[in-house]
Amino acid sequence: MKIGTQNQAFFPDAIIEKFRYVKEMGFDGFEVDGKLLVDNIDEIKQAIAETGLPVTTACGGYEGWIGDFDEEKRLNGLQEIKRILEALQQVGGTGIVVPAAWGMFTYRLPPMVSPRSQEGDREAVAKSLAFLNEAAKETSTIIFLEPLNRYQDHMINTVAEARRYIEENNFENVQVIADFYHMNIEEDNMAETLHHNRDVIGHIHLADNHRFQPGSGSLDFKRLFAGLKKDGYAGYLTLECRVRGENPEQEYRSSLAYLKQALV
Fold first, then answer.
1. CA distance 241 to 244
2. 118-139 and 71-91 are packed helices; what angle lies between their axes, rounded to 10 degrees?
3. Does the predicted TM-score (pTM) go above 0.85?
4. Other CB atoms closer than 10 Å to residue 134's CB: what's the count?
5. Is 92 left (phi over 0), alpha (psi -120 to 50) or beta?
6. Is the link from the previous residue into 147 a cis peptide, with omega within 30 of 0?
7. Is 161 tagged catalytic?
8. Which residues is 203 bridged to in the sheet?
9. N or C, fewer C-beta in 10 Å, the chain?
């Protein structure tokens, strides 16, 4: 297993310097913002060639959720995601991380009544995934469907719910991304969920129980990594977390060292 990272506020702004910095820190790959990739693809190709640091995946960088209440936004979002997939194909990226929505609605906060039925939610998400499954086939990429916790999305909260879309629709180019932070909130047993869904989990996001850097909270990464290794998981473990501490850069480096030790 290899460890990747998303961007952090203390990373350099210039693309080549960003790639050099991530490589120097000791990461194995970079999960890029989709818009940054599309808008700067030639520069990113040059950065990959110089540093040898691969773009593993994309996350974000489009407007309009695949389960958006607004149909125009949903359709526009699909076109933007397709362009990101085309760019990923050019740089050798595996695929894009896609939740049903983020921050659009939750049953856990007022008004607690969705403007659309659950059947309507499922229809919108399934239609979007059908389109993206074909786009992913055309670009030899993968759609990594992400369950979010109940406070950030109301449609897909568990790995089992994401799996259901894949099985019911026979999507060949859709897999599940398991996010440790969201799983810590939603899953009864994280290790068992990872094991029972090992055949559909193609990507993993890392954060500790409180969303900050791994090693600063209560999750047992060594135990979870041991289960992944036993099941033959060969994808990336990508940091998607906030960083706290007086020196964020040093805290991030320490977190990476902690994760590498947990992999041993």
1. 10
2. 30
3. yes
4. 14
5. left
6. no
7. no
8. 177
9. C
Catalytic residue chosen out of the listed positions 146, 186, 187, 251: 146
Give the burial class of 47: count Cβ atoms within 10 A of its Cβ; 0-12 exposed, 13-18 middle, 19 or more buried.
Answer: buried
The continuous run of DSSP H or E covering 117 comes out as: none
Q: Give the separation between CA 215 and CA 53, rounded to whole angstroms.
A: 25
Contact at 8 Å (CB) between 48 and 54? yes
Asked about 146 being catalytic, the answer comes back as yes
Could you give the maximum distance between any two Cα atoms of the chain, in Å?
A: 52
Q: What is the pLDDT along the chain (264 residues), one digit of tens a residue?
A: 999 999 999 999 999 999 999 999 999 999 999 999 999 999 999 999 999 999 999 999 999 999 999 999 999 999 999 999 999 999 999 999 999 999 999 999 999 999 999 999 999 999 999 999 999 999 999 999 999 999 999 999 999 999 999 999 999 999 999 999 999 999 999 999 999 999 999 999 999 999 999 999 999 999 999 999 999 999 999 999 999 999 999 999 999 999 999 999
- Residue 106, amino acid: T
Candidate list 186, 187, 240, 251, residue with the active-site label? 240
CA atoms of 33 and 36, how far apart (whole Å): 5
Cα–Cα distances in angstroms (integers) from residue 56 to residues 5, 15, 206, in the given order: 9, 16, 15
